[in-house]
Amino acid sequence: MARPSTLEDKRREFLPIVAGAFAELGYRRVTSAELAARCGVGENVLYRIWADKNAMFLAALEWVYIASERAWERLLVETPDGEGAFLRLLSYEAQHMGEQGLYRIVFAGLSEADDPRIRAGMRDLYGRFHAFVRRQVTAHRGSGTKPALDAEIAAWAIVGLGTVANVGRELGLIGSERRRALLWNAGRLLAEATDVDARPRGRRRK
User: Fold this and answer.
1) pLDDT tens column, 136-173
2) How many domains does the chain have?
3) Domain extent for 104
4) Number of C-alpha atoms within 13 angstroms, CB side, residue 192?
5) Residue 190 contacts residue 141 (beta carbons within 8 Å)
6) Are 70 and 29 a contacting pair, CB within 8 Å?
């Protein structure tokens, strides 16, 4: 006999659909009726899983990281060594970043950052991305190197590259080949920089 479906099963089933709707329509244009229709259930079913539309959007933000993490974990299994793992991950993102359009959920979140719950969700999302990239940069460098750019700053800069690449994709400012070059070449420079002055320079007095 098949096991009855639970709310957690439904949550896992609906989460990619809910995320896709927010990615397509943004936060303001999505209604709970639209989300329910896409999931093929009544609104009451969604409200048994998530308290309100805000909670549904926060779940969509979580999906942005989950979807990325799943792809990364597969690559890390295939490339267990630290140095090779970072380059493999960077190459993957250079080829595939933004293909699913999930960055639009992040853009929508930025426009709603005055909402304390969404702001907290955005901080958590960026914090998780940064922590992951920092671990990979640190492993890639190894214990014997002394790069001028510390891992924390390098990780934030690499996260920033991803944001710029997605802005370029969305607005048609950067073609696919240039986006790949941006992420691959600049990402490696940031991770491996050994000859830059990491200290901000003050303005010269005349």
Assistant:
1) 999 888 776 677 789 999 999 999 999 999 999 999 99
2) 1
3) 61-192
4) 11
5) no
6) no
